[in-house]
Amino acid sequence: MALISAFTPVFGAVLCGIIAFFFFRTSWRSESSSGQNPPRTSGESSRPWVDEDLQDDTEISGKDNEDDDWTVSETENLPHVPYSPPRYSEEEMMERSQQFFTLLNQRRSVRFISPEPVPRDIIHNVIRAAGTAPSGAHTEPWTFVVVGDSETKHRIREIVEEEEEINYKQRMGDKWVNDLRRLRTNWVKEYLDTAPYLILVFKQTYGVLPDGKKKTHYYNEISVSISCGLLLAALQNVGLVTVTTTPLNCGPQLRLLLRRPANEKLLMLLPVGYPSPDATVPDLTRKQLDDLMVFV
Amino acid sequence: MALISAFTPVFGAVLCGIIAFFFFRTSWRSESSSGQNPPRTSGESSRPWVDEDLQDDTEISGKDNEDDDWTVSETENLPHVPYSPPRYSEEEMMERSQQFFTLLNQRRSVRFISPEPVPRDIIHNVIRAAGTAPSGAHTEPWTFVVVGDSETKHRIREIVEEEEEINYKQRMGDKWVNDLRRLRTNWVKEYLDTAPYLILVFKQTYGVLPDGKKKTHYYNEISVSISCGLLLAALQNVGLVTVTTTPLNCGPQLRLLLRRPANEKLLMLLPVGYPSPDATVPDLTRKQLDDLMVFV
Asked: What is the pTM of this model?
């Protein structure tokens, strides 16, 4: 009886100890992942991702390139050369800026793409244009995989549609009042077969140096996204259409299908071609200057 | 005594219950943040950032827009209209693609910017061009703050240089053999005073609906980066220069200085103007097509 009554306070103490342990452990975890003490590095520390594939490297934070200026570091040891680009008169600048805005403003995302072939050399120049983007420390962390082969395009379509169908069916479980037909339209990606080219844009999350060590690719996602902006402008410039898609859950499967290395992650998939004759787009509007810009 | 002995098994059961509760809670948390069972949503779940400022919202993963296709969801209920952009002959396409690549290939990041004034209307068109970018669910999650006021530019310079100087002095502690002069050059950002305009690009990490609820801004960082690509192309098109800088540690201070709301985060700072007459650039080379592209 004395033994039994001795256990009760012991149990109580153990109970309190365990509660305290778990409590402090969970609050430490939430603190470090919420970044309350941000490290003094720029770069890509702590950037988890939905892909299982991506444990690699986005946690490397190098102190080498804390400078916010992308041109420094790697390029510091290169000789500098004079730079003196074309200069236009103010009237020319005004006209050019208006024409360029008009051109880009006509660009829309288009899912109805004609199977009509497009000369490959044009695509080459579009890719070259994308490759002129700035990048953190001039790492140029991009790979553009251009798929013209029908079988491969079809395999890509199968992978993407399978993933999308799962997504939508899960949603149907939650929102059963949805229009079935609308959902089916959304997971069928005919353009993946019909478009003459699929451009899969991969970001290189890190590089590999000659000695085998990893090379940090600072701001690789921002850099590759900027590059995609140039790619979209280049496509619009020649009258080709595309739609920006981000089938990231399929990223690992597509990486393996296209035999890209482990440091590459799919960022975007762009089907490219002429618009089909009956192509339509949602009748949306863009923000006006007042909503885009604040002038100080 | 009977009462005391009755408590012991009760304590034991409570103890086990509490241990089990905390155990499952922590393992659920680590599972969802490491993505081992990736949520079936695309979007920006679990994306911490270096800014203290950013607790807001990048963890919201909406099931609304699981589609990888950016045009769906919000735009689904809009009427569709025919889309039929200009079409060029293959020869024209070839020529246009070559000219555009040549134009973009001349673009370099330039830190030596002339104080010569630039007409504001040209900058307006450049911003409008950037605003034509695609965005996740057409959220257009960008704000371009254009600073022409000298005092504000100077304050921006002070903030950025202070942060950079701290960074470099920390590095000096580690690498004391570094050339002092080279380091000093790197943290002095004269262009922040001399450039006629500073364009600070903010990403809206979430929106606010009329009822006050948060609106998810899917892929806001990728969208705003694409928009920056268009902005760089538009600047190059009119003969203006800039350098892509990402002073992210200063993000919160700059946000407050410019009175931007809590949902906006600084993505990039671009000083804009004509190149100074003695401007130089590092003599670097860009990847050739073979290194940019893989053709399947």
From this structure: 0.78
Domain count, chain A: 1
Q: In Å, what is the CA distance from B187 to each residue of A72, B82, B147, B281, B286?
A: 11, 52, 21, 17, 26
- Position B18 pLDDT exceeds 90: no
Has residue A37 been placed in a domain?
Answer: no
pLDDT in tens, B105-125: 999 999 999 999 999 999 999
Q: Is B147 on the interface with A (CB under 8 A)?
A: yes
Closest CA to B64 of B78, B53, B51, B74: B74
Cα B78 to Cα B94: distance, rounded to the nearest angstrom: 36
DSSP code at position B204? E
Q: Which domain holds residue A120?
A: 115-150+195-279
Q: Please, are residues B191 and B243 in contact by the beta-carbon 8 Å criterion?
A: yes
Question: Minimal Cα distance from B90: which residue of A?
Answer: A119
> For residue B40, is it within any domain?
no
A173: in domain? no
Q: Say which CATH number the domain at A264 has.
A: 3.40.109.10
- Report yes or no on A176 lying in a domain: no
* ipTM of the complex as predicted: 0.78
DSSP string for residues in B212-250: S-EEE-TTHHHHHHHHHHHHHHHHHHTT-BB--B--GGG
Contact check, Cβ <8 Å, B35/A26: no
> Is any Cβ of chain B less than 8 angstroms from the Cβ of A155?
no
Say whether B272 sits in a helix, a strand or coil. Answer: strand
